[in-house]
## 1
Amino acid sequence: MVAPLRIALAGLGTVGAGVIRVLETNGALIARRAGRPIEIVAVSARDRSRDRGVDLSAYAWEDDMSRLAARADVDVVVELVGGADGPALALARGALAAGKGLVTANKAMIAHHGLELAQAAEDAGVALRFEAAVAGGIPVIMGLREGAAANALSRLYGILNGTCNYILTTMEHTGRDFAEVLSEAQALGYAEADPTFDIDGIDAAHKLAILAAIGFGAQIDFGAVETEGIGRLKAADFAQAAELGYVIRLIGLADCDEDADGARRLFQRVQPYLVPRGHPLAAVDGATNAVVIEGNFAGRLLFQGAGAGAGPTASAVVADLIAIARGQAGTPFSVPAAELEPVPPAGAGHRRNRAYLRFTVTDRPGVLAEISAAMRDAGVSIESLIQQGRPEEGGEVLIAMVTHEGPESAVSAALALLEGSPSLTEPPLVMRLLG
Amino acid sequence: MVAPLRIALAGLGTVGAGVIRVLETNGALIARRAGRPIEIVAVSARDRSRDRGVDLSAYAWEDDMSRLAARADVDVVVELVGGADGPALALARGALAAGKGLVTANKAMIAHHGLELAQAAEDAGVALRFEAAVAGGIPVIMGLREGAAANALSRLYGILNGTCNYILTTMEHTGRDFAEVLSEAQALGYAEADPTFDIDGIDAAHKLAILAAIGFGAQIDFGAVETEGIGRLKAADFAQAAELGYVIRLIGLADCDEDADGARRLFQRVQPYLVPRGHPLAAVDGATNAVVIEGNFAGRLLFQGAGAGAGPTASAVVADLIAIARGQAGTPFSVPAAELEPVPPAGAGHRRNRAYLRFTVTDRPGVLAEISAAMRDAGVSIESLIQQGRPEEGGEVLIAMVTHEGPESAVSAALALLEGSPSLTEPPLVMRLLG
């Protein structure tokens, strides 16, 4: 048998314990597939005494996580600490600088520092892999780097946050409001005590930025992701979407087109979308994730599965370790880091879409005329209109409409005309229809 | 730039021409991702003069396909001729024996000779890859070999034949009968003039046998796939399935369990199944393929996309070439060929299922009592019964039922009791419910 791949684990939360469990349970099978055993040599976490349901006695313990990178008996450091900066980033830099491979599930760190880390890994001639950072157990990074490698992509998009999808599909099925469903999701463990990262779309934006960089050969640009969360959705939006034949999903979407002057522009958006009922993403329920890759030869490829959880995420971490053990790690972003292009963000204005617009208005005459006039003056053509007759609490009425396809700038102009109108009791909500 | 990967193409049908088109259209992108260009050096096909819509003038032409394997300027032979044996197999053996890598889309050849070819490739230290042989453009072999590599699989199953899925979903949507929809599919190019391989399930069985070998580390055993086609389905079956909340899909399914004596047994079946409407495979429409892999940590992974066609299949062929160009080809069946175990087939008898049974009977009193008695005597418990009251042409009546979960042997015993009964105008149809 060839020498084992010796790994060190930093972070022993649910995913870290999951990695230990995968290697314990499937170790013999993994060794056959990898061509050699994968052995945990050392571990580190904040609290040594905590019961994690796994036996740590066979592994060296380091109180100081950064020392894992210095150990001569370690080939690959597995970083499962989390956080874009701080100890996770220090460990990642230290491991690569010491000539160790690095496997991480840390989407925030890769979204912010992926280019630097990839360059460091390539300079050191070691592996950097982060399959678990995007869509948990779904091998979508492999799908991009390998499965769809022969294709120029027209776009990629998907459901990248299980918490949001759980909340949205529960709202869809129960007709209940956001706050209530969020509380329940928190009680059930589907949402964090502080759910901001998830429900504001930031977690999905991290993942999207990583996928977009790989898919379009662009330097990762998390800051350019236009991000909107799900916190403003009302039960009425779901009812109205349903009436039109749509469901609501938080979609991360990226594409890369050429400007009039031939320069590439990267568009990245995370936003609730109306998804037509026949679309594969409309059938994605609960905490499941799914990613669609559209290639110029492969057509539409869909990857679907569990987007989070100890088992699925650990499965992805160990898949990366197996690739390293096989000597098949490759370059982190498919092309060498130095060849990733700095692609400026695309403005959304000239994008053409159908849009769902929802206005919360005071129940008085003339409001609909006011909104309609703004649409007309901005050149927005309305395809269908739903006015919810029964006032909500506080005498509010919802007016929802779907526009014909047109430039996003026209919708923005219409909303600008309505800004400050005393008829509107809150800012209008805009959702695009996934085409 | 590193030296190019030099390839020879055998077979210039739609897929072969597609490979040329992929390499022409996306060549620069592919070279960046692969780390070096992929260059076609030589081609061979039956008819040199045929117009394929691609320019062949830059490539050496070999009238005798087998000479591609002998060319010193070729690194990898791409076999797109087809057929389990004959020239394709001779070329494959010749290429590997000459120390060339081999990429093929030939599911029949791999299903019949995959073990021998994998052994030959490993002995020669060259790559053998066949992503395009299963599910067209969907990277499901990569999903098994790499994405799910950390998992022991409980089962894998999917929609592996686009022609059948097109026919079944058209029958579902239109309520028309098999023969009529098949003719239309042939006219539209979705089905071959001789559709036997597709509609009898043989093509799906080839693919299933390949996936099962990789997924379960078993020597490929195409002969053991229990195979049933879609030719006996009637419009009434779809109507009755719909009433019960199901659709009908041709499913290839494999699992691998241990016997009472601890020996592994491989179960492989291709058969029309009733799929519950909420299941992801129920939403797979038209010529699309989809494969589900159930892992002990990743959970349920779904891969979906175009299962055939020049573009998707060529995309998979070139993905394999990119992996070879990167030096990441690995072992063809995930574990070395010598470690693939000869796993005997599992008998279906003790498998527990719910089943849909459909009887075509003469319209006379006592028939239902006769069938019910056979069920009772064999210990089959009926969950629901639909008797279609209106006789079909020729005075036939359909009786359909769904059983409670029970052993398949009990259903077989019941049908044996009814064998030869003059009440039945054709053999009963059995479909399992996908659980």
## 2
Amino acid sequence: MAEPSEITSLDGELRDGAHHMKVRVFYEDTDFSKAVYHASYLRFMERGRTNFLRLLGTDQRALFEDTEREAPSGFAFVVRSMQIDFLKPAFMDDILDVVTQPDQVRGASITLLQRCKRDNELIVEARVRVAFVSNGKAQRIPRALRLAMGAANH
Amino acid sequence: MAEPSEITSLDGELRDGAHHMKVRVFYEDTDFSKAVYHASYLRFMERGRTNFLRLLGTDQRALFEDTEREAPSGFAFVVRSMQIDFLKPAFMDDILDVVTQPDQVRGASITLLQRCKRDNELIVEARVRVAFVSNGKAQRIPRALRLAMGAANH
Amino acid sequence: MAEPSEITSLDGELRDGAHHMKVRVFYEDTDFSKAVYHASYLRFMERGRTNFLRLLGTDQRALFEDTEREAPSGFAFVVRSMQIDFLKPAFMDDILDVVTQPDQVRGASITLLQRCKRDNELIVEARVRVAFVSNGKAQRIPRALRLAMGAANH
Amino acid sequence: MAEPSEITSLDGELRDGAHHMKVRVFYEDTDFSKAVYHASYLRFMERGRTNFLRLLGTDQRALFEDTEREAPSGFAFVVRSMQIDFLKPAFMDDILDVVTQPDQVRGASITLLQRCKRDNELIVEARVRVAFVSNGKAQRIPRALRLAMGAANH
């Protein structure tokens, strides 16, 4: 209970082509089996995707501004499908690393590889296919965003 | 585990001036303490308020149509404050009765009395003050809605 | 808002080898995109799996008692992996049919096919591989449970 | 979207007798009204209480070790009642300050004052009465914990 509090960045950070974010497990994330409720990992990974886009916007500002010009009313990623493996349980008070990185970046969809780790143990691994939605409709992914993702990746 | 499944009404029912609704406790509602997570009761009570309004709309259709005329773009209750007592724990697989009834119906706000019970045991009791919001703004509560609430109450 | 309330069975029902359960979409299930939040479907499907097991216990009582003899301290399904497709959005006040059926029943794991439908529209479809956990450990699936699942299926 | 990421402490910090913690609003926290779902604030405040206890354990280690001696199987705060005011809406991407401080520390219960703020705007304010639970039962609050809370407060 008394481990010292880590200094971290509120929205995580981009490093080695991936977004890294620390998530503490709270009561709300667990269920009466004592472990983390399986759907809670989807919430953790959505926080990772949202922050990945947020930091990409700061880091690759010129490319992001091009994206915003193509989608002036704003845009978001919407999950189309996911394949998820629950490998080990996590527990109350655990600190998880949520790592998000582009896996396949195509014109119509992006597949992200997302992992929840506790130190070096892999807890959950998912491949998440997202579409780019703007103005309430799925759109072709703007070239600038594909470049920004690629730039993050190298 | 093997108790026979109760026949119930999907949205609960109005009876004796109150809305009654059965809620089954699932994994998602519990936490690692083994009991129901405290914020889950707010979700149960919100389902009760939503269904109370839904059934009032069927039961008191004429009064509700008057309300809809005063709020043509739709309306909702928004919680302004609540006083809530967590009296006993509830557990996985429990069936709770969520009972919602008007407590004070005034021009600017309505206070609802909401109870979660397991058979005759009171688990949670709350007084919930809601405002009537239409068109994105708090509005005076339409007379027809106040009458519909009063009619439900007698 | 004023559609009459359906009579339903609190825990859903077994029919044609599948478990069927109605779920109403509430505020808690949606997000600011206006549609149902993607992880909410995992909560709906977990309710389906829990109730499927519950009703199987009533319906196939003799086989279930054999299972309980093999797992005297209780048992549960734990999700090992899932493949999930989010095909269409669902919205506040929608009534969804959550349909759960055995897809592959093997010694070490069961794959369930789960679908969330709104009338005849398929909203979400998932294949969910679960392990049988008793006494805190994954166990071979008792023959009686495999038979009960098969019996439900025919 | 592109504001630079704040450096923060994962578990918040103790300052001026209060626990301060930043919480980012994600999709999961909102509902289709576009604002934060009312029960989400209870999740934010529970994170605040959990981290307040965690940091108190680090900061006032000697007093905490006395507490742990009196409750060797571990202990937790359990919410008995709360009075909560929802003053203004918060929205997706907002950063909230969750501030937790002892209000009344008595032998049988502690009342915490908890506030969610966005810059200088007060969004939610609550008084939360918690009991000290150890070994599955409510216990008198150990003198050392009362001292640790008092020490945090000055």
## 3
Amino acid sequence: MNWEDIARELAYTTDSKIVLLVCDGLGGLPVGGRTELEAARKPNLDEVARLGACGVTDPVFMGITPGSGPAHLALFGYDPLRYQLGRGILEALGSGVEVGRNDVVARGNFATLKGGLVVDRRAGRIPTTENERLCAMINAGLPKQEGAEIALTPGKEHRFVARFRAEGLSDVLSDADPQKDGKPRVQAAALKPKAGRTAVIINRFLDELTALLKDEPKANTALLRGFSKFPSIPHLAELYKLRPAAIANYPMYKGLAKLLGMDVLDVGAETPDLFDALEREYKNHDFFYVHFKRTDAAGEDGNFERKVAAIEEIDRFIPRLLALKPDVLVITSDHSTPALLRGHSWHPNPFVLVSPNAQPDGVKTLTEIECAGGTLGRFRSIYAMPLMLAHALKLKKFGA
Amino acid sequence: MNWEDIARELAYTTDSKIVLLVCDGLGGLPVGGRTELEAARKPNLDEVARLGACGVTDPVFMGITPGSGPAHLALFGYDPLRYQLGRGILEALGSGVEVGRNDVVARGNFATLKGGLVVDRRAGRIPTTENERLCAMINAGLPKQEGAEIALTPGKEHRFVARFRAEGLSDVLSDADPQKDGKPRVQAAALKPKAGRTAVIINRFLDELTALLKDEPKANTALLRGFSKFPSIPHLAELYKLRPAAIANYPMYKGLAKLLGMDVLDVGAETPDLFDALEREYKNHDFFYVHFKRTDAAGEDGNFERKVAAIEEIDRFIPRLLALKPDVLVITSDHSTPALLRGHSWHPNPFVLVSPNAQPDGVKTLTEIECAGGTLGRFRSIYAMPLMLAHALKLKKFGA
């Protein structure tokens, strides 16, 4: 029996409310002797640490740096070693592409073909505006293939997302990508017979696209990889009997929340919009996932000062969370993003849980080192969900 | 390989002695700023914490509130996610019913039948004395069915345990219970062909019982659920090469110990009886499970002061434990029972292990927060058994 089986058996609906604030990439490493959390003035986050039970979490296991997909799945109680989301679906969600149950999506690159060889898999990193023009041209010129609707969504520079929409498509396909410069174009191959028709559609589309782009100086072909369909993953309502809402202003996190069956609320682009939405919808749901992106974005840019500022920004909204008096409030992150490393890292996430049913501890500030000494100890992120449900008194007893 | 496989390979018999004192439901939550353990005067338990290595344990995993069955199984090294004991067998053990290898047992309710419908699944919660009269009447009137011996043991109010004894019975049966008031009686159904004869026996018995009770004002039928046989579970002697003794004065815990092949010692109903038995039998066994119930009983009643008093009571017996100088002494609990929650909870258990082979730590009092900071950290209860055996030098090296 695993957690999912147990959750289906033990979880039940109550009036209690859970708020999970994910400060993306919150944990860090010292620069000049202090981590971002240690350098920030954040009286409200520290007050939460004083009020709650603290610990640190490993998204996958010790030493593993997760992408946003696995890190978030773990926080919602899905073992990231069991559920692996295809790159195509994550890229599509991150680009705000609407993905239906029948669609196959893939990550695309514009590339340069010369003398029958792919000489630059990134088409000299064409400007994003060029990319947008090409995608519009292709969408207008090649919208259908054997009855399948095809749509490209431009990303940054040479990157795009391709969506193939028809009944009966399959994603059991190899990449249409030579992987290295200086090799011929490669067709997508059906890895199982059921994907044969999909491979034909995709390869004809790529040939016609290449014909259409033949006069472009750099972007005169395209590569596709990471074919994936909408994953079959149980919803939070089904597993936990929750009415969950997602409050996020980046498409990637909205898309992930949609995958898990959350109601994705309409939210503006700024931080106050998150809390306006939470207050507005507070009576209509019992689980709120609130996503704050700026801590991660600053960490990815290697900008220590901007990450400190992002922590200080979110700190000012904490009183609005506490004023709602949720039965369980958790503040944590999906993964660490130390500015020092300019990217995601394997370091554990500070975690604090405030509830009338939580055992207190002596932690007084929300930092990596203080949380590591809290009563919750060090644990895998997949236990965040059982802990939240338990403290909200939404789980029955296991066995007699 | 799991722990059981490893134990079979590595465990061996020595003269060293292990004493495991389970203070049932020991951990709690603050009321007026202090937990039960923080409020109690318990100089001897604190001395044990000073002498030993401390930690906290999760019986199943974080957030899961266990019943007594899974919580105890875990303490003895059996993964509670693998071994799940039926409600019937636990109810039978808890009622002191002697269950043999061929018996099927079930939880029973007296119920009220009116116009062909079960209108009250609890027969208006008839007095226990009424229940006792009815069970005696049925045992005298309906002792056999197709050669199967049948015996009812009364519990509190409307509850009883039914035991069916014959060769070849099966417990793969659905409940004979409509689950809701206002529905007709439901027969037990064989979920596999091998249970067909057992279903016939049980359904005929329920029909005859209903005929026998037809003039009773409230308790004129009965429902049965949780059919279960004696589970097949390896014994402690087999896994760990121990000669284990159980010292408990409640039938539920004696029954569990019997399931695991422990010698269940004769013990009176009072706390000194536990320690008298331990001293008397100390030379005859090498593993002693001592069960103290009053901490849990007070917690279940929501009586903070009485739980504090129970902690102070058990504290006075600790010098008798230490005087025996066991090679390993562990004091912990199966699960937490905060008076604040009036029931079992998911909070981890304080755990202290005293042994000449234990690493010391700085913990000075036996409380939830202090133990959480001990050198043993936070771990699943199934590691209690490997830890005890290791410190008693009863485990060989794994691998070369």
